[in-house]
Design goal:
The protein contains 12 helices and 8 strands. With 298 residues, it is α/β, with parallel strands linked by helices. The protein has a single domain, classed as Alpha-Beta Barrel (TIM Barrel). Helix 6 packs parallel to helix 7. The mean pLDDT is 95. One of its GO terms (molecular function) is lyase activity. Pfam families: HMGL-like. InterPro entries: Aldolase_TIM, HMGL, PYR_CT.
Length: 298
C-alpha cells in the first residue's frame, strides 16, 4: 500500500554538489543561480563547500558566494567535512552543516582517505561545534545502492552507518545512490529495512541518474512515505570519484513528477527551468532535464 505524503521538501544541491563537478564558474554566476533558485520557490539550498581548494577548486569561493546572498527565508547549507570548514561556514552565517561518509569502505578510503568509523570519529568535533552554535547538521551516506569499487552494498551496512550519523546528532540522513545503479526494487528493500529502525522523517533520498532510474527510484521512496528529496537544477554534476556517474536527478523532472502525483512542493516550474537554462548557458551546455528541454522547445 503506497503512503505518499502531501508535501515534499526538495533540497536543491545544484549550486554545490552540481557545480563542484562542472567546470569552474564565477562567483557572480553562482550568486545569480542561488538567487534564481530562491525566486523559483526553493527553501533549502546547498550553497557551497568549505573544503580544500586544492581538491575542489570549484568551491574555493564559497565564503564569497554566501556573503553575497541576502535570503532570510532560505535555509542555506554548506558542506563542512572538518572543524576548519565548520568555522569558515559559521563565519558567513551558515545555519546548517552537511557532513558525508559512505556505506562502502573502499569508497570512503578513496574519497576521504579514512575508514567509515574514522570518518564518523572525525565529525565529532564538527558536531560539538554545531551544537554549541545552534547549527543543524545533515548527514550524507554515499554509495547506498552500489559502489564503483565494491559493487553491491549490503543494506545492513547502510543501516549501520545511517544509525551512527543519527546517533552523532544529525537531524536527517540523505541516502545517496552516488553512481546511479539503484533500481526501484532495491530502493524499496533498502528503505523498508531502514524504516524498521529509523523514523521516515529522518530520511532523505539523493539519486543520480546514470542509468535513467532516478525518477523511478524517487517514486519508490515516495511511496514508502519519504518526504525529502535532493535534486540539482538542470541535472548538474556527477561524482569525481565515480567514473561515468552522471549528474544528480534534475530538480525540474522531480517537480513535474510531484505535480503529476498531486504532491505539494511550492516551486514555480517555469522559473526553475529558466534558472537551469541560465547556468547551463554559462557552462556551455544544455540542461540534462527532459522536462526543462520540453518546456523550452514548446
Amino acid at each position: 500500500m503506497s503512503a505518499f505524503v502531501n508535501k515534499v521538501r526538495i533540497v536543491e544541491v545544484g549550486a554545490r554538489d552540481g557545480l563542484q563537478n562542472e567546470k569552474t564558474v564565477s562567483t557572480a554566476d553562482k550568486v545569480a543561480l542561488i538567487n534564481a533558485l530562491s525566486a523559483a520557490g526553493l527553501k533549502d539550498i546547498e550553497a557551497g563547500a568549505f573544503v580544500s581548494p586544492k581538491w575542489v577548486p570549484q568551491m574555493a569561493d564559497s565564503a564569497d558566494v554566501i556573503s553575497a546572498l541576502d535570503l532570510p527565508d532560505v535555509n542555506l547549507s554548506a558542506l563542512t567535512p572538518n572543524l576548519k570548514g565548520a568555522h569558515a561556514a559559521h563565519a558567513v552565517g551558515i545555519k546548517e552543516f552537511a557532513i558525508f561518509t559512505a556505506a562502502s569502505e573502499s569508497f570512503c578510503q578513496k574519497n576521504i582517505n579514512c575508514s567509515i568509523d574514522e570518518s564518523i570519529e572525525r565529525f565529532s568535533e564538527v558536531m560539538a561545534f554545531a551544537k554549541a552554535n545552534n547549527i543543524r547538521v545533515r548527514g550524507y551516506v554515499s554509495c547506498v545502492l552500489g559502489c564503483p569499487y565494491e559493487g553491491e552494498i549490503d543494506p545492513q551496512a547502510v543501516l549501520s552507518v545511517s544509525q551512527k550519523l543519527l546517533d552523532l546528532g544529525c537531524y536527517e540522513v540523505s541516502l545517496g545512490d552516488t553512481i546511479g545503479v539503484g533500481t526501484a526494487k532495491k530502493v524499496t528493500q533498502l528503505i523498508e529495512l531502514l524504516l524498521t529502525h529509523i523514523d521516515k522523517a529522518k530520511l532523505a533520498v539523493h539519486f543520480h541518474d546514470t542509468y535513467g532510474q532516478a525518477l523511478t527510484n524517487i517514486y519508490a521512496a515516495l511511496s514508502l512515505g519519504i518526504a525529502t528529496v535532493d535534486a540539482a537544477v538542470a541535472g548538474l554534476g556527477g561524482c569525481p570519484y565515480a567514473k561515468g556517474a552522471s549528474g544528480n536527478v534534475a530538480t525540474e523532472d522531480v517537480v513535474y513528477l510531484l505535480q503529476g502525483l498531486g504532491i505539494e512542493h511550492g516551486i514555480d516550474l517555469q522559473r526553475l527551468s529558466d534558472a537551469g537554462w541560465e547556468i547551463t548557458k554559462v557552462l556551455g551546455k544544455q540542461p540534462v532535464s527532459k522536462v526543462s528541454v520540453a518546456l523550452h522547445t514548446k
